[in-house]
TrEMBL record:
It comes from the Eukaryota. InterPro entries: AB_hydrolase_3, AB_hydrolase_fold, Carboxylest/Gibb_receptor. Coiled coil: none annotated. One of its GO terms (molecular function) is hydrolase activity. Residues 89-286 form the Alpha/beta hydrolase fold-3 domain. It comes from Musa troglodytarum (fe'i banana). SUPFAM superfamilies: alpha/beta-Hydrolases (SSF53474). Keywords: Receptor. This is Gibberellin receptor. Signal peptide: none annotated. Pfam families: Abhydrolase_3 (PF07859).
Length: 307
């Protein structure tokens, strides 16, 4: 098998960084199922919020429930006209449910670019992390943030999107279902217009063709994803739990009628790509009366096509 089939071409510097991150990640994930947070902090550079515009965006950290360290970072374009109504994107960061936060340099930069490019308000949620807080903690936190927004006057929430990458994409699905289950009169202001799942983190007990073929992929390996699922899922659960294998043998209930349209982004070198495609196909099969959006480009979102 050629190396190109396992990983995208990377410069020597990027290969070194990926190798270093992988090594520290592996060292931080202890055999007893806990995370060495002090070691993780060596890689997780943080960025403070700033009311002063930086790269065309202002930021502020907004507390929601300090008893569980639930808060979000708000990203606001620095150039907003009086009375202008901006769409709202509620964003859930990746990190295998166990790492990173909205003030991590990586996701501060990502959300800043989304805010500036899309010209939208971005609400980046600091949800509780595994293994200290297992499933369904991040789903509950995401729904709690929506309730917080629904009861305030932060923005016009009539055009609200949920977006997330990796574990954040998984959270998008489960939070959207919680919103949709109560959509008939249960929300005052929040109206979900769509979901964007970027290489969402799904899985199952089966080993798929991509997981076997891309066994040497950087960062996301079978061994690492297995460890993260054990750290996140309820004690005693396997990867066919409905949190990970949402349309698998333990699927819970039918999809809610109000569940919004979705765009699913699949990475060509992602070992989880087969699970992502199954999720997409599961949406289509269960939502034949609705228009679902999908894109299948390698690694990066592109213009979606209506199905």
């Amino acid at each position: 098998m050629s190396p190109a089939a396992v990983a995208p071409p990377l410069s020597r510097t990027k290969r070194f960084v990926v190798a270093a991150v992988s090594a520290i990640n592996d060292a931080a994930c202890r055999s007893d199922g806990t995370v060495n947070r002090r070691l993780v902090s060596l890689l997780d550079a943080r960025v403070a919020a700033s009311a002063k515009p930086f790269r065309g965006v202002r930021t502020a950290d907004v507390p929601v429930d300090l008893s569980r360290d639930l808060w979000f970072r708000l990203f606001v374009p620095s150039s907003v006209s009086d009375g202008e109504r901006l769409p709202v994107i509620v964003f859930f960061h990746g990190g295998g449910f166990a790492f990173l936060s909205p003030d991590s340099y990586l996701f501060d930069d990502v959300c800043r670019r989304i805010c500036r490019t899309v010209h939208a308000l971005v609400v980046s949620v600091n949800y509780r992390l595994a293994p200290e807080h297992r499933c369904p903690a991040p789903y509950e936190d995401g729904a709690h943030v929506l309730r917080f927004l629904d009861g305030g006057d932060l923005a016009d929430l009539s055009s609200c999107f949920l977006a997330g990458d990796s574990a954040g994409g998984n959270i998008v699905h489960h939070v959207a279902r919680r919103w949709a289950a109560d959509a008939d009169g249960g929300w005052k202001r929040v109206r979900l217009a769509g979901m964007v799942l970027i290489q969402p983190y799904f899985g199952g007990e089966e080993r798929t063709e991509a997981e076997l073929r891309l066994v040497g992929a950087p960062l996301v390996s079978v061994e690492r994803t297995d460890w993260l699922w054990r750290a996140f899922l309820p004690e005693g659960a396997d990867r066919d739990h409905e949190a990970s294998n949402v349309f698998g043998p333990r699927e819970v209930g039918e999809l809610e009628e109000a569940l919004p349209a979705a765009m699913v982004v699949v990475g060509g070198f992602d070992p989880l790509q087969d699970w992502q495609r199954r999720y997409y196909k599961g949406l289509r099969a269960r939502a034949s009366r609705r228009g679902w959006w999908s894109t299948r480009r390698h690694s990066t979102p592109s213009t979606p096509s209506l199905i």
